[in-house]
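pasting for ref
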Amino acid sequence: MDPCIPLPIPNEQLEDLVDKAKDYALMHGICMRQKDKFDRDALHFAPFVLFPTPFPRDEYNKAVELQTILNELMHKVAHDYDFLKESLKHAIKVDDFTGRLWYIYETIMSEGGPTQELDVGLFRSDYFYCCGSKGIKQVEFNTIASSFGCVTSKLVQAHKYVVAEAGRGDLLKDIPDNGALEGLSGGLIEAWKIYDKPQSAIMFLVEDVTYNICDQKFHEFEIRRQCPEVYVIRKTLTELGNRAEMKEDKSLWIDGHEVAVVYMRCGYHPDQYPTEKEWEARLMMERSLAIKSPSISYHLAGTKKVQQELAKPGQVERFLGDKAQIESVRDIFTGLYSLDHDEVGNKSYEAAISSPEKFVLKPQREGGGNNVYGADIKPFLEKIKDSEERNAYILMDRIQPPITTNYMVRPGQAKAQLVDVISELGIFGYVIGDKNSIHTNKYVGQMLRTKLSHVDEGGVAAGLGALDSVYLVDAGRCCLT
């Protein structure tokens, strides 16, 4: 697939544009803290590609239009106890982390259901454009700590600046604006207003050490800009375990602040619960009146086993009534297969052993770096063939996206590298509702993450991926042979 600007460009022009892009990123907060040289008082620009990456216009528009339908679908999934139980019945027995989450969910349900019936979901649906089907295919649906909405909102403006500086202002009309930062922040404010206690706070639940700091802090700043009277506090799960309390009326308090909304930017990985204290804090939070983003039910709805269960014939129909909507959702599903110890799971197992290059093996984890790919699948599966651990994984068809070229710009590297890359589209939305109804349902923005075409995992912080923006093109330009 041809890039938006013919590459390579002359070295003198490249160096000029890279310097301008780096300065723009540093001066507009498109930044992260470095893991290998952590300094509380220092930032480096986040890895990015120099030019926005082409993406087919019609498929991008399809993803945007689908987001509110998917928000509704996942909201209803999260409020269907029987469906969650059936989907996760094997995984919770063999995957300790999912089992602990399920225990919290079951505890809440056994107590008569959540004290706070309202949930706010800040969601992101991720896609590759598939050359085989000539359409978008969903990679996953994120219900917790959906990141990079802020910095990619700012990166769009950086890309427009760079493209104009390259003398191609005619391309700007095809680089869509990105309102993810404003929209996601607005969702948290809306939930805070529904809680309706002016002295209460929005609590960001954060890691002990935060590297992706700008993506979080600009949400905080945007909340204050949109609603100056709201106060944002940042706490860790450990701090919550040590100092938070739930009062008789079930209100959640910490350090003198009543918590109206909990926005979780951590809590999605076992390492973030190092002791029982953190698990107790999560249970207390779920029992409280605070509005959670996400609630434990939303968290469980985002697991891979639920995604695989939804892909089975007749399951989407369980939650959506409109035939056109059902077809539009089913159209974005790629092949998702159970590996449970039964006839269906054994068939999937044999298919993966025979042709591992056609699949991706996924556990019940968020945060990246957990999947198994290609030649690694066969020995991994053979090791767990007769183990119940197999039930904790799903198998997904490997999607073949178009390859293009771009300059990848990374901190600490003297020159931008011209590399072959593939890109993953993320669409942001939020939903607010309870088990009986949806109060608000919106699409708010998008992001693009781009990685080297020959690698499996594309972590931005790990050095294999970079932040990106969408440049809309006709589909005929993609997947050229």
